[in-house]
């Protein structure tokens, strides 16, 4: 009795360890985010562009100049002059440009987030596909065993000369067809893992989960749309582009102020020297002409463009959400109908009892199996659609 308890506990512990070692979808996505080469390259690109933007708000280099005039006709000695000066735009220009750079940097980060979510959504699709394939593998493994059992039964009847060779061949072909399905699923699993590993920077991943962990029930449509508007980087990009256009207008207005120059000047001849400060003003009469109007037009365009794109996104979201709800209702009806039928076992029992011929058994079996396969496929498509609807949460 004591040994049985120990063996039972050991089995539970091993099962728990095996389960703990099987990574979840969330852990797979974390690894992909860390190892994906595209995301690494995108991160470096964003950082380089951010530094490039910051460099655009630097002061111009100071100017250093000197004159030494020994030539010509003069009696008082050679003329020398030395000057150092620094030019700069009006102080408010730097503040406005700094704010614009911050907005542009935020836009770069949103571009990264769009790329990141696209890659993670693709990786999650592969994980969902593997779950679907694992569920099919479980189903087909059982069907292979049932087909083998039927073939053994038919072969026994054939040897007793109770059925002909044609029925035996049909049973053999049915068994072979189920085995071929196993081989195809194994090939699909390998190919899907290969694509998942590619997203993981070529690092090998193992994923054996055979059940979906998330509920198919979504939040209310309006609540989900409000959430998307707040955190979806694709939609947030539109608002950010409008903010950039608004700040570009502010910068253009500030550039109407004059540029300034300040410095030190020293001049001397024949032992005499004069020195003092130097100041200058550049009045932007022509350089900023029409730039404010152009920035204002760009802002108005961006506002109209954002309204149009947001409306399109909302329409697309509603269509996708409505289609999802219809498919979910259909799937729930399928699941409720098929879950309690136990058709495979009942048909096999009827066949073994001689109540059905092989062809009758096979035709009835295919009808129920096709219905069950359609339910599995529908469930998989629902999770793929859900992944697209909730991509902004990744």
Number of structurally distinct domains: 1
**Overall SS class:** alpha+beta
Q: Could you give the order of strands across the largest sheet?
A: 1-2-3-4
Distance linking N and C termini: 50 Å
Number of helices: 10
Total strand segments: 4
Order of helices and strands: HHHEEHHHHEEHHH
The portion of residues assigned to helices is over 70%
CATH superfamily: Outer membrane efflux proteins (OEP)
CATH topology: Outer membrane efflux proteins (OEP)
Assign the CATH class: Mainly Alpha
In brief, what are we looking at here?
The chain has 394 residues and is α+β, with helices and mostly antiparallel strands.
Helices and strands in order, then pairings?
Elements (H helix, E strand, L loop, with lengths): L1 H20 L3 H11 L1 H19 L7 E7 L9 E10 L2 H69 L5 H35 L21 H11 L1 H22 L4 E11 L2 E11 L8 H48 L4 H10 L5 H32 L5
Antiparallel strand pairs: 1-2, 2-3, 3-4
